[in-house]
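Query structure, 354 tokens:
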């Protein structure tokens, strides 16, 4: 990734994982150099020379960067290209910013709607509960522990000696639990004794949530496990909350965790030394609004309608953001490599494929 710094506050330092290039302005327009470094040929040059043991720890040497061949038009053309790209990418960046703000407002409205649905009066009531001051005083609640239990997960222990009966099981990690959904794009396995696996095997209807999160606002977000993968065990840092479904619907509980009530409860009760953490006892103390199963079903039906609507909108916004990014990169590459004359181009439909 490369960026041109046009101005900066005083005493601004660069981290050890960054490289600061100070171009000779008589030889190259610094803006043009930044644009050029983002194009495929320089990227491929560095990619071929990278070193490192893991994908997240790749590096390249300063000497390789300085040895990179760069195609430079004359200075006047560099200025023209840089001015053109500044204007056109600025236009795209403003559109991206608008979409990001739209996405943020969408999330706010979604949380507000789900919160009012699951805990009526939470956004409007003037009388507040003495114990949980964000809840309306008139809202009757019961402790989660009266209607659910928490199942512990498997502790990873690399030094444990393997036994003859050990078997390989799919393994749900913290990284798989993403708020109201479970990401199964990458599922790892663990080799443990079958009896250990049985004690930590997920069942359809379990609500999974993580015990820690770097962002306190995301602590306590939960998703319903639907049994997508058989014999799935879960990590000890992932709670499996198994509800008595004659009293509490898993999807209703998951909706509560996604709403303001769940977020504020876990922020209010969390330990925040380094990262925000919770415990099984605090999970079991969670105050659940006392709704009949019929009322919970009505809430769940409306909640799922809201989720489907916001999922469609999120996908549409994500598609637009992806297209903006593609357009931006194609425009930079085409301009820097001379695929069109920037002095006569508007930046719109300037060349095939851009």
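Result returned for the query:
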């Amino acid at each position: 990734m490369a960026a041109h710094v046009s101005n900066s506050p005083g005493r601004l330092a660069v981290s050890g994982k960054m490289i600061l290039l100070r171009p000779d302005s008589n030889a190259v327009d610094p803006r043009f150099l930044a644009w050029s470094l983002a194009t495929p040929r320089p990227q491929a040059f560095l990619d071929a020379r990278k070193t490192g043991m893991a994908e997240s720890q790749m590096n390249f040497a300063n000497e390789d960067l300085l040895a990179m061949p760069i195609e430079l038009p004359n200075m006047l053309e560099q200025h023209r290209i840089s001015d053109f790209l500044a204007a056109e990418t600025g236009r795209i960046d403003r559109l991206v910013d608008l979409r990001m703000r739209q996405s943020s407002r969408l999330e706010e409205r979604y949380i507000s709607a789900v919160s009012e649905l699951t805990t009526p009066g939470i956004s409007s009531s003037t009388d507040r509960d003495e114990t949980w001051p964000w809840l309306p005083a008139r809202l009757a609640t019961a402790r989660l522990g009266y209607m659910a239990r928490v199942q512990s997960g498997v502790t990873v222990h690399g030094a444990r000696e393997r036994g003859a009966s050990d078997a390989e099981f799919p393994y749900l990690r913290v990284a798989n639990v993403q708020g109201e959904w479970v990401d199964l794009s990458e599922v790892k396995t663990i080799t443990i004794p079958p009896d250990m696996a049985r004690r930590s095997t997920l069942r359809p209807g379990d609500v999974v949530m993580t015990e820690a999160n770097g962002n306190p606002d995301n602590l306590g977000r939960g998703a319903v496990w639907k049994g997508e993968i058989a014999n799935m065990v879960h990590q000890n840092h992932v709670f499996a909350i198994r509800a008595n479904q004659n009293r509490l619907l898993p999807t209703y509980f998951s909706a509560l965790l996604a709403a303001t009530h769940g977020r504020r409860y876990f922020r209010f009760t969390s330990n925040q030394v380094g990262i925000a953490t919770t415990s099984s006892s605090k999970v079991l103390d969670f105050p659940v609004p006392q709704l009949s199963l019929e009322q919970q079903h009505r809430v769940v039906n409306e909640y799922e309608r809201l989720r489907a609507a916001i999922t469609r909108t999120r996908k549409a916004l994500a598609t637009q953001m992806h297209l903006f990014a593609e357009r931006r990169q194609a425009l930079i590459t085409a301009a820097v490599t001379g695929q069109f004359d920037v002095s006569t181009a508007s930046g719109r439909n300037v060349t095939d494929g851009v």
